[in-house]
Amino acid sequence: MELRVEGERAVLGAQGREVDLRSVALAIDLADALQEWARVAAALRRASTEAEAEPEAARMVSQRGRQLAGRVAAAVGTPVTYVDPVTSEPLLVSPPARPPASSRLLRRFLGPGQPSEEPTPWGTGLLVAAFVAVVAVVAMLALATTLATETAGWIAVAAALVVTLGLAPSLWLARKLPVLRWVVLGVAAGVATSWIGVLVIAF
């Protein structure tokens, strides 16, 4: 597919034929931006025939065209040959690579890698953390009670230490993830609190 300027129109062509912009899955704002860019490019061409065109204006028109070609390539999912209206040189613009479906699913669940601008849900988050903390305390005390009763107190302490050290790396890695950070807070608080009961049960 080719993107070029004809007259004052932005034209998409495929196999030597012009493609109607309305028949391509382009957003309305993208189609409007293409036509606006074409009108500016046409005005720049007219100015260049009458007098020396501004180099900065020509550079901006070319750069804007490359940006729009990239958006078109992303919309149609195929490479687009962008014909620069200033230099008439063709440039192949490829669509951006889409991440795997599994990565998109994880990003949707875990949140973006960068900090979000949304407000922190303290109420819901602390409620989740409290629930998880209670579950962690009950699990740790049940483990310690069973081992201390059936074997010896030091085995209960050793088992609790193994569980704590085993959870530490995972909790550290997930501490900043938007959803899991509340679970991490609950597990960390629950495990830390349960150590009081573990020591009481063991000794």
TrEMBL record:
It holds the Pfam family DUF2537. The chain crosses the membrane at residues 122-144, 151-173, 179-202. Keywords: Membrane, Transmembrane, Transmembrane helix. InterPro entries: DUF2537. This is DUF2537 domain-containing protein.
